[in-house]
């Protein structure tokens, strides 16, 4: 990691501190373009926005998908205070961002917060394959 990249990662950590000061979970991210300039910054606002999806990584991925052409998106780097969760990782992949650099891993984060209980919802399936495949067939070709 270069000194400039370390500074960008420190900025993500500053954004995480700002999120916490505003009463939100302590996560922050920024998106850097192919030229090294900061394109956008976000903090977690899940509590103040009453939106469980208001993670900074997801907000930046959505912004990039809306505002950047695919070639530019592929040349970006997201700097984020913590490794993206599954929801955010999926959005980052679909938005076409090129790279993510994070400070804390998911495992490290787990050592800093109380243990969570296993998922409380049940998933059942697959079911009705022949019916469910009809609207999907041919879409991805």
Strand content: 15-25%
Query: C-alpha Rg, in Å?
Result: 17 Å
Please describe the biggest sheet, giving its number of strands, its sense, and whether it closes into a barrel.
4 strands, mixed
Low-confidence segments, given as residue ranges, are none
CATH class: Alpha Beta
Distance between the termini: 39 Å
Morphology call: globular
GO molecular function: catalytic activity
Domain CMP/dCMP-type deaminase: 3-124
Protein name: Nucleoside deaminase
InterPro entries: CMP_dCMP_dom (IPR002125), Cytidine_deaminase-like (IPR016193)
List its salient traits.
single chain; 141 residues; Cytidine Deaminase, domain 2; 4-stranded mixed β-sheet; 40% helix; globular
What is shown here, in short?
The chain is of the alpha+beta class. It has helices at 3-21, 56-67, 70-74, 86-95, 106-112, 129-132; strands at residues 28-32, 38-43, 77-82, 99-104. It has one domain: Cytidine Deaminase, domain 2 (3-Layer(aba) Sandwich).
Which helices and strands, and how do they pair?
Layout: H1 3-21, E1 28-32, E2 38-43, H2 56-67, H3 70-74, E3 77-82, H4 86-95, E4 99-104, H5 106-112, H6 129-132
Characterization of the model:
40% of the residues lie in helices and 16% in strands. The protein is an alpha+beta fold and 141 residues long. The protein has a single domain (3-115), classed as Cytidine Deaminase, domain 2 (3-Layer(aba) Sandwich). A hairpin with a 5-residue loop joins strand 1 (28-32) and strand 2. The mean pLDDT is 95.
